[in-house]
Amino acid sequence: MDYFIYLGICIVATASPGPAIFLSIKNGAKYGFSKALIGVVGNVVAMLTLASVSAVGLGAVILASPLLYTAIKVIGGLYLIYLGVKAWCSKPLSHTEHTEKLVITAPSRLKIFSESYLVGISNPKAIAFYTALFPQFINLDQPVFSQFALLAGTFAVCSFLFLATYVVLASKLRKYLERKKTLVWFNRITGGVFVGFGAALVSSNHA
Questions:
Q1: For every one of its 207 residues, what pLDDT tens digit does the chain have, with 9 covering 90 and above?
Q2: What are the sequence ranges of the domains in the chain?
Q3: Is the Cβ–Cβ distance between 102 and 180 less than 8 Å?
Q4: H or E element: which one contains 177?
Q5: What CA–CA distance (Å, rounded) separates 166 from 158?
Q6: The model's pTM
Q7: Which of 45, 113, 137, 165 is the most buried (most CB within 10 A)?
Q8: C-alpha dihedral sign at 21, 24, 29, 32
């Protein structure tokens, strides 16, 4: 019963809109499914990293230090703002000067992975989530590592499935982004969303 409660929490948490989801949508729409899926893997690896940090107790240490927590929060928020400004200011390139059809050049797989990993790892709210959640579902009378592996693995699978679903749906929009005006507005909308998330993270109170 406890596991299914945890599963329900994971589903709600991973399906709810956030920076990782909007980054997956942006990548899927602009670069297609296969490239965007690399970003999904990057975000999932970041989530597993944060889960491991919380499991060994470092999450509690970070939460106990307002200065360290604030530093991570500000760095993460500024990175999201940077991604937003970068998306807003990006200029689409046409095949020629006489056509509105665009060539969208995808960054390398390593860059897509790294960008998604940094978006995931720089969110201190995830550390707070894991640190508060894991102890509620771990029985100290049973082997802890196997329980941790199950909890972290469940969250990772849920995250992967939902992000991949958003990527599939967004990749269907790629053909519409071949028009210059559409891509300009898409960049502005996604850029604005990232700036909003970043500003909210920077300005949020310690919790």
A1: 578 888 888 888 888 778 888 889 889 988 889 899 999 999 999 999 988 887 777 667 766 777 877 787 788 778 778 878 887 887 655 444 444 555 566 688 899 999 999 988 887 767 777 877 777 777 767 887 888 889 889 999 999 999 999 999 888 877 776 676 777 777 788 788 878 878 887 887 654
A2: 2-10+21-203
A3: yes
A4: none
A5: 12
A6: 0.73
A7: 113
A8: negative
